[in-house]
User: Fold these one by one.
Assistant:
Number 1:
Amino acid sequence: MPERIDPIWPVIAALMAAAVLGAMSLATGFGLLKISTTVGNSATVMIFLLVVGPLVALATFLSPRIAIAATFAAFFAGPEETRAAIFFFGILVILGRIAVGRTPIAWSPPLWWAAAFASWSFVLIGYAVEPNLATKEVVLLFAGVVFACIVLAACRTMDDARWIAGVFVLVGAAITARAFTDLSQLKTTFQGASVEGRLAGDFGSPNQLGSFCAMATFVAAGLALGGRTVITRIGAALAMAVLLLGLTFSLSRGAWIGSIAGFVFLLLSLRQARRIALAIGLPMILIAWALGSFAAENTQIKVITQRVGALTFTSPYDARPAIWDEALREIRTRPWTGYGPGSFPVSSLRAGAETRSTYALHAHNIFLNVGAESGLPALAMLLGLIGALALAGRRALRGARERGDFRDAAFIAGVLAALVSVLGQAFVDYTLRNVVIYVALWGLIGILLVARRTASGQTRRHDRHRRDPLFGSEQAVRRSRPSG
């Protein structure tokens, strides 16, 4: 069903736009004043703010998906800029929708679980042992849910979803390529269980880089398999090669485990993925093995080989068992409220903790971490969200297959594989404190919900019969005009 158009919304939009423009003008003035006093040559920055900024804002009104692309581009600048981009471009998308008579935001049923989780986390700030950390965690959680809503609002069709996914892959490949300057610093100790100089790039740790690369790799795989044009498929394949290198040299065992889970899901979901893996994957493995044999003394290859061998090995430097025990102890101590969102670094060092000699930023497991910080109710909400997203993915995949659009099915499978990789890594690691990874995750959730909406019949493609060059079968896509 199409969205209801109400004539009162344009009036509200005009009033909100006036207030927002006034606030933006005031903030810009203070910002330029601060820049002029702290930066010696501020002309370039001022030109960017006064010229490029308004142009991007105008383009967002004309095409809301540009707001999502601009938010992804903010990954280059850092966490604070990414948060600001969500707020700024989110307001523009909301105003654009209101101006044409639509409701301010778009919603999807699975997001009720996320809203419940965020609301419960907000309540727990008062019970947190470290209120400042709890506040930051809750703000980040709300920003993620809002960003998913913005993606859902900005993408009216699957083509929009593909476009922003392509921007995400491009940004991810560029960020990964910028990290390759650290490759020469790799050094292994204790037979690969501990590695110094690992690839981290702009992230706080190599594990975070690995998590980000794993997500982007599977989205790129979905575009390479399901792209509508040859240029899209070739570009996605090239970006996937860069991202796979970043994933490999991050030497993150957790990210590798998550990637294996995502790869298995992709193979089980797509017959064409199995064909390509058989036709291309095996020769690539043989070539890599041969090159590794000839270059056995190469430092990078030697480190990777030892790191792979340490996948099932627990080193003296690995305190995960003690950290898991501490998380379980905290859950037993405070089963309903936990110690507060984001408070595990503090609670794990308190009197009675089993990790007082080991500083732990998180519980190295998403379920233990959420249970220890926010209690069993939050853990139930998290499981509910995961289940709802799984059902949404199943519905989206089935819808794409029913309408005969196997390109959409491949793209959706790639997005789902990216989410599976995050979940797979989350069993042994917790990288979601990083703002860029967290926002990227919710962006992919938003794309998945766009696909779910498409499967529900709110956005359908026109009928056409064509023979697909990759899948070798004639596709019939039903044409349907929205009723009313």
Number 2:
Amino acid sequence: MGLFGRKKTTGEEKKTVKISEKVEKTQAEPASMKDLYSDAGKLKTSEGKTAAVSKVKRIFSQTYRIIVKPIITEKVTNLGVENKYAFAVARKANKIEIAKAIEETYGIKPLAVNIINMKGKQVRYGRMAGKRKDWKKAIVTLPEGKTIKVYEGV
């Protein structure tokens, strides 16, 4: 036994494993380029039969990083009449990423996305002067008849 309870392998055992892996790889390769393209939309099963490959919907995995929070103010609630919603979004996010994130989160594809870079306000705490962080706001326009339930629990 070797370190951490692993079995020691000799150089000969390693070589036989590598050779057997190479043999398996060469047997799995198609005979010609035609074989590659004839089975383009198919997947080989363990029995050697081919099965159709279903397309998997791409998931935009950065959604939770793009949309920070919905903005709920009096001004924004008045925009709800025009089917517009406001969100605080990541500083580096662009319109395309925001639209994908909204579609994935709420299941509605937006008609338009407008972005505004908001400057952080100057603040004072006693004698200490400072500044809040800059942030980005996105105003998302949805198609008619579609709504987002942002105000639940407010």
